[in-house]
Amino acid sequence: MSIELNNFSVTYGEVKAVDNLSTVFPPGSTGLLGPNGAGKSSLIKGLLGLVPDYSGGARILGRDINSERKQIRQMIGYMPEDDCLIPGLSGVGMVQYAGELSGMSAADAMQRAHEVLLLVGLGEARYRKVETYSSGMKQRIKLAQAIVHDPRLLFLDEPTSGMDPQGRMEILQLISMIPGRSEVSIILATHILVDVERTCDRVAIMNRGKLLKEGSVEGIKGKYAETYSVRVEGNRALFQEELRKNGCQVAADGKHLLDVTLPPGADTGLVVRTAGETGVQLRRLVPGVQSLEDAFIKLIGVDEHADL
Amino acid sequence: MPIYERSYLSWEGQLLDKPRTWWIIGRTGVRLAWKKSVALLLILAAVPFIFRAGQIYLSSRMGNTSFLAELAEGIQIDAGFFMSFMKDQTFLLLLILIVCGAGLIANDRKFKALPIYFSKPVGFWDYLIGKFLVIVCYGGVITVIPAILLFIGQILLTGTPGYFSRYYYVPFSILGLGAATLVTLGGIMLVLSALSRGTRSAAIIFFALVYIPEMLRRIFSGMNDWGWISIRANILQLGAILFGLRRPYPFPGCLAFLSLAVVTAACLAVLRHQIRPTEVVK
Ligand SMILES: Nc1ncnc2c1ncn2[C@@H]1O[C@H](COP(=O)(O)OP(=O)(O)OP(=O)(O)O)[C@@H](O)[C@H]1O
Ligand SMILES: [Mg+2]
């Protein structure tokens, strides 16, 4: 298990940013998804001991976050969400420094700093002072300092914020490549769903300090897939009208296909029955391709309602 | 800026079990704090050193020629000689602490470096000791190190075991006074660095903290024993005790020590509060 949480909370004065979480993140890449203020960053900072006030227990890579903090910090890499830099140093200087602080020898850290800077696309800018970097370059150097010592677990907080589309693609590609090459687990906090879909196999959805849902990306998408792609032969117009009467939303998708969204509580039986009643032949009935976004919005929506 | 057609490679090396992060922070800090103004101050600080070295040389050659003997007359190379050298360096020490120290924590806070430091195996004490090493390095190089060199020069030039057996304690006194000075003044400088964002305001407050109580002490000392409110007076009082000299102020020596200890403890408390990767915004 890469992370185990046990009644873990993070508070800032009155604000409870992470509210009594108990869960387990298995190895692999997990997207921590939630709207602004959900508590994603606070959860990560709390686990690393970067916030003044947290309670409950947690283990990272099998080690206790209270008693083995330095060992944990050696095994992880953290890319903070703010523009964090070590002033006065060049790109290589900063990444080498980060490597040495993690326990690499000066020579190893230097060599590896060059490697990871090339990898994140800062090859040409690596001798410039980090203060002069643009936001996209700051993102890249933050990623480089997090991976320089080859950590076993990477915490990436909004890794693509402030990047141009091309840069975003590159960073996402790089992130999705990391776990495959070595046994690195990733926790990726973001509110951008596509980023999670592209890079993670699991997703944990957070809102208001609580975990709403977690599971494989496919599983969560599937669970909320109430839209179906339907094809019929026969009186299509009648079939459509009948479906609408039964509470479905129907949209014609091209010449033959219909996108049918079922009313809450209904299942595919409704479509089959309607087809029988209207005398059309059902040729196709498959879950519609649905993005994580839909699942996400549904979940958050449910949560907002629950609060009213 | 293309990401090169390379893939992420794991690193096969072995991480040190317990990296001495305070040393790495200190070493890098010393390198980053080096600037032209530091070099200038070091050159200025060399002047009194060369002057004192000359005095030591002359006094060791006293009697050889009448001209030198005249020049060296009245120079006593005793414990007080080394103490007054350290005392004379104080002003330059304050300047160098400002030049090297004001940015130490201020810059890290400005560029939000603390979350990066504290996501590595760096603890509060590693960070603080690392930053303090910078102060020890540049402060020591104009106080403790030249004082020790002068002492060694004196031993070598007199060549008599008598001198050493009489003043064997002087190197320890130098170290003790240097430590007390650097811990208190360095502590105050680090606090100002952690609280402020500009070098200039830090410099002004630093001088004010050192000299305003000293002025108050001079005003009030006629009526009362207020010497211990002045950091400078406390350091001199402590120095006199360490060097076995007559105490310059009437208040007890333990009060000087206590007063400096309280200042240091207060500095630590503030630093503990300020050096945090995440501030809670109310
Ligand atoms: N330093 C702080 N001081 C006080 N409250 C804070 C602080 N940082 C975060 N909070 C509060 O904690 C809650 C969670 O914030 P957090 O930054 O963890 O959210 P997030 O999920 O990372 O959001 P985002 O997507 O905007 O980064 C919010 O209500 C926020 O106002
Ligand atoms: Mg955040």
Radius of gyration of chain A: 24 Å
Bound molecules: adenosine-5'-triphosphate, magnesium ion
Q: Mean of the pLDDT scores of chain B?
A: 86
Could you tell me the number of beta strands of chain B? 0
Strand content range of chain A:
25-35%
Strand order of the largest sheet of chain A: 6-7-8-3-9-10
CATH class of the largest domain in chain A: Alpha Beta
Query: How would you characterize the largest beta sheet of chain B?
Result: none
The stretches of 5 or more residues of chain B where confidence is low (pLDDT under 50) are none
Q: What characteristic shape of chain B results from the CA principal axes?
A: globular
Gyration radius from CA atoms of chain B, angstroms:
23 Å
Distance between the termini of chain A: 36 Å
Summed over residues and divided by their number, the pLDDT of chain A gives a mean of 87
SSE run of chain A = EEEHEEHEHHHEHEHEEHEHEEHEH
What is the straight-line distance between the termini of chain B? 40 Å
- In the CATH hierarchy, the third-tier topology of the largest domain in chain A is known as Rossmann fold
Low-confidence stretches of chain A: none
